[in-house]
TrEMBL record:
Membrane-spanning residues: 21-41, 47-66, 87-104, 154-173, 214-240, 246-266
Highest taxon listed in the record's lineage: Bacteria
Organism of origin: Yoonia vestfoldensis
UniProt protein name: Membrane protein
Keywords: Membrane, Transmembrane, Transmembrane helix
């Protein structure tokens, strides 16, 4: 009875220790959700109410996931900087796009810098069969040329941020010896959606899932515009005249593939770590067997 009570107290203490950091993450998520509405001019009352509602749900979800003993959906919670890198990439993408579209209605030297940078990157990446060119081609033929230019600039800048986040995560993975960095790696906490007992070798399953995620992440920027274009043939074409819709559509198009690639790299790294531990155990067992003779 005493031992059970002690475990309960330790669990409550652990939750309260995680609560300040979880609250800070929830605040950052709220800032991310409301950023376009706060920076852009002319957001309607209905749109503002929807944004506030989404921000509240996102904050509650983040608070619960990061304060609980074990998350239910968030992967690699206790293995930074995986989620920090992903969130930073999405935050930077939404911030840059919001500043670009703010400059169309309320220009300033700062917004002009974002517009110039986005235009230069968009034109540089807009070559035949590139993801940016496919994003432009998915729009209806009678689209406003100014809208196409804005879409090109936003897609180019977002895609570059996504690529940079992947490279940055790989660099941190090598420099910081991620995910362990000298501590224990809890598979149950960091991979809540992965069932080690589902069948088959854990290492092989992690390697397979990692490769699938990497391939899917690299193909998704090319496949998504094609799917949207085909869907427009049988339904209403996509409408990105609203700056808010364009910002979140382009941000999701660039962020999701980068996030999937980083997840694939992370799963592959975890598989390598487990394999290394197995090799160490086998080596020790072999040494002990030999020393017995």
């Amino acid at each position: 009875m005493i031992a059970a009570s002690a475990l309960v107290i330790m669990g409550v203490d652990a939750v309260f220790r995680r609560l300040p950091a979880a609250m800070m993450r929830a605040i950052l998520v709220v800032m991310l959700v409301v950023m376009p509405s706060a920076l852009l001019i002319g957001s309607g009352n209905d749109a503002t109410q929807v944004v506030v509602l989404v921000a509240i749900f996102a904050a509650l979800f983040t608070l619960v996931e990061y304060s609980a003993a074990s998350p239910s959906l968030v992967e690699f919670r206790d293995a930074p900087p995986f989620n920090r890198t992903r969130f930073s990439a999405l935050f930077a993408t939404v911030l840059c796009l919001s500043m670009i579209f703010r400059g169309y209605d309320n220009p300033s030297p700062l917004t002009a810098m974002f517009e110039t940078t986005g235009a230069a990157i968009g034109q540089a990446i807009d070559f035949p069969y590139s993801p940016v060119r496919l994003m432009v081609l998915m729009m209806p033929a009678d689209s406003d040329p100014a809208l196409l230019d804005r879409l090109r600039d936003a897609a180019g800048l977002s895609y570059l941020i996504g690529l940079f986040s992947i490279v940055w995560f790989i660099v941190l993975l090598r420099l910081q010896r991620w995910p362990r960095r000298g501590g224990a790696f809890n598979v149950w906490v960091n991979l809540p959606t992965f069932d080690p007992t589902a069948g088959g070798d854990v290492v092989l399953r992690l390697q397979r899932d990692g490769r699938i995620n990497i391939i899917l992440g690299f193909l998704l920027p090319f496949l998504a515009p094609v799917v949207v274009k085909l869907a427009a043939l049988f339904a209403a074409p996509i409408n990105l005249d609203n700056p808010h819709s364009l910002i979140w559509t382009v941000a999701a198009w660039a962020f999701l593939p980068a996030s999937i690639v980083m997840r694939g790299v992370a799963l592959t790294r975890v598989a390598d770590m487990i394999q290394m531990q197995r090799d160490k155990v086998r080596h020790r067992a072999a040494v002990s067997a030999l020393s017995g003779y």
